[in-house]
Design a protein that fits this description.
The complex is a heterodimer of chains A (about 425) and B (about 220). Helices cover about 60% and strands about 0% of the residues of chain A. The termini of chain A are far apart. Chain A has 19 helices and no strands. Chain A has about 425 residues and is an all-alpha fold. Chain B is mainly α and about 220 residues long. The chains are: A mainly alpha (about 425), B mainly alpha (about 220). Chains A and B meet through helix 7 and helix 8 of A and helix 9 of B.
């Protein structure tokens, strides 16, 4: 009797017991169960929830690896100075960088998964349902959207809050109104703002060294812009650095290039909606253009505190901050986003639009993607409702104006057919 | 319980759990959100509401046969407004700092749904003694929920209880703060109160499943 067979036997033995969901979760994760359907014909597809989740995780892995290298690169560069002639292999992809990134970021991943999955198991055992796979993607997203030095206990508290209040109270995976990963980030942001903003948290070690002679800092691009230091920012970073991601920021969101690849992968594997991604990009560009227009028309003076961000070229908003990451991996969450095709266009457009707007006008924190997505999560069902109602109304109207075809004996039949086609 | 008959005692005890103004009737939420960041403020608020509620119920109960039903809401408003002004003036005179913390929310006791609700639902149709018990009962258990929320919010949000540091000094990093613990800024802002109320309701309903409505 092989291992697979033994596992099936164990499953039957513990069926209906309290711990059965916990066992089944591990079992079905590793092996496909031996159950077959008993009645009727079924549509067969291989993309079950686990496969869907794993595809997204696969798309996230490059971001995670890049984040590890970048954590090391930012740390050593902040201490030793940025290299004069940057070369990818010489300065970025090195063991030192990777090792530092790994020992700072892997604990975040472990805590995120450990705490989150523990809660999922506990709820499954209490409520007596199967363990849901919903946390697989959330657990990977969370370490990628927090600053590298986030204390682990804070992350654990935030994960407990996000999973319990953001998801389980609504009925678990598939029933949540808000994206759990963003709920976790929002909790961290409002609970521990000093660890989520400013110029110290984005580079490993900067918080510990603050106040000493060796103090280092790493302001994000948006941080520079929010203070109106546009020229200083352009002197330090060029566009290709922003696009490829050699800039300070949350762990996995800096490299627009890798996010773009991940996004294309998700579109071609039909996991994520291209409508949401495209419309969100359009929304961001539209808002950026409006702000650029305001600056060009000289409606705001140069000393205005919004000038720095408003005069930032509209398309460059896409390659800095977490906008790209949010659009590709979070806005497209099938549970919390809009379901109808027309709704997806509206939903995505408003996410991009609001992200850039919050970026510019938020006084405390120059990033708005997570707030914009959470806000639109709340509105997604409303958007869907009106899209569906609009469709119903249009069809009712069509029905009212439709002409019932007369019998063929009537000479006008052909004429009417054309009219109602 | 020789003092109170069983029926009368129930007037006080019912709002404790199975008919709690906040967790079951979901009234008085605004004040529960606004002033529960500190225990002291929630305590003063509870006492004020107990006073307004108790005296108000007596007045309305006494006048119940005189007030024409068409203008009863106005009459109730006048009673509650008068009492609230008394509370407000007393606080300003004897606890000025606290009255600044509570700011408009003392005035807003007028709009506290529990008070108008009890006037309408109880005092207008019952005798004075029973109205006193009902008023005090409701306000008391409203206050207890306020205290519970205040306890969590002040402990986790500021690390203090009644203004006394219990977890150490967050700036000098003593006590629990030495281990890297930090105050949770989220607990200070009103949405946190909504979540704490939600959790209290959750716990209550898990313990008494009869409270759960049919879906």
């Amino acid at each position: 009797m092989g291992l697979k067979e033994k596992l099936h036997q164990t499953k039957l033995k513990y069926q209906g017991k309290k711990m059965a969901p916990a066992f089944n979760a591990i079992h079905t994760f590793l092996y496909s169960p031996n159950e077959t359907t008993h009645s009727g014909g079924h549509v067969r597809a291989v993309d079950d929830l686990k496969r869907t989740m794993n595809t997204v995780i696969l798309a996230l892995v490059p971001c995670l690896l890049f984040g590890m290298f970048n954590a090391g690169y930012q740390h050593y560069s902040a201490i030793n100075g940025f290299p004069e002639n940057f070369s990818l292999l010489e300065h970025f992809i090195t063991w030192d960088n990777f090792w530092l990134g790994a020992i700072t970021i892997l604990p975040l991943v472990v805590v995120s998964y450990g705490v989150g999955l523990a809660i999922e198991f506990v709820f499954a055992v209490i409520k007596g349902h199967e363990v849901e796979e919903g946390y697989l993607v959330t657990g990977m997203l969370v370490p990628l959207i927090v600053p590298v030095d986030t204390p682990l206990w804070m992350l654990a508290v935030a994960v407990v809050f996000g999973v319990v209040i953001g998801k389980e109270v609504f009925g678990g995976t598939g029933m949540n109104i808000l994206n759990p990963a963003l709920t976790i980030r929002a909790f961290l942001f409002f609970a521990y703002p000093t660890w989520m903003s400013g110029d110290k948290v984005w580079v490993h070690g900067a918080v510990d060294l603050a106040g000493t002679p060796d103090a280092i800092s790493g302001e994000t691009i948006l941080g520079y812009l929010a203070q109106g230091n546009n020229a200083e920012m352009y002197a330090k970073y060029n566009l290709s650095e922003m696009f490829f991601g050699f800039i300070p920021g949350s762990v996995g969101e800096t490299s627009t290039f890798l996010i773009l690849l991940g996004g294309l992968f998700l579109i071609f594997s039909k996991i994520a909606s291209w409508r949401i991604m495209l419309s969100a990009v359009l929304g961001a560009l539209a808002m950026g253009l409006v702000f650029n227009g305001v600056v060009a028309a000289e409606w705001i003076p140069e000393y205005s505190k919004f000038y720095g961000l408003m005069s930032f070229d509209f398309w460059q908003h896409l390659i800095v901050g977490g906008l790209a990451f949010g659009i590709v991996y979070m806005a497209t969450d099938p549970v919390t986003g809009s379901q109808t095709n027309k709704g997806k266009w509206i939903y995505g457009f408003l996410i991009g639009f609001l992200s850039v707007m919050i970026r510019v006008f938020n006084p405390g924190y120059p990033e708005g993607v997570f707030l914009a997505i959470l806000l639109m999560n709340v509105f997604a069902p409303t958007i869907d409702h009106y899209v569906v109602q609009g469709n119903v109304r249009r069809r009712m109207k069509r029905l009212k104006h439709a002409t019932i075809l007369p019998k063929p004996s009537d000479g006008k039949a052909e004429e009417l057919k054309v009219e109602t086609a | 319980m020789a003092l109170l008959s069983k029926k009368d005692a129930n007037l006080i005890l019912d709002p404790l759990a199975d008919n709690n103004p906040i967790t079951i009737q979901v009234l008085g939420i605004c004040s529960a959100l606004a002033i529960t960041a500190e225990l002291k403020a929630s305590l003063v608020m509870s006492i004020s509401v107990i006073f307004v509620m108790g005296v108000g119920n007596v007045v309305i109960s006494l006048l119940r046969n005189v007030i024409p039903s068409k203008i009863r809401i106005i009459a109730q408003l006048i009673v509650v407004a008068t009492l609230v002004i008394v509370v407000d003036q007393v606080l300003k005179a004897f606890a000025y700092e606290l009255s600044k913390t509570l700011s408009v929310f003392v005035g807003l006791i007028i709009t506290n749904c529990i008070i108008m609700g009890r006037f309408e639902a109880f005092a207008l149709g019952n005798g004075v003694w029973r109205s006193i018990l009902d008023g005090i009962g409701n306000a008391l258990w409203y206050g207890v929920i306020l205290e519970k929320i205040g306890l969590f919010r002040e402990l986790f949000g500021s690390g203090t209880l009644f203004g006394i540091p219990v977890l150490g000094d967050p700036i000098a990093k003593t006590g629990l703060y030495a281990t890297g613990y930090e105050n949770n800024g989220f607990m200070i802002i009103p949405p946190a109160a909504l979540i704490v109320v939600g959790i209290i309701i959750w716990v209550q309903r898990s313990r008494n499943r009869a409270l759960i409505e049919e879906a």
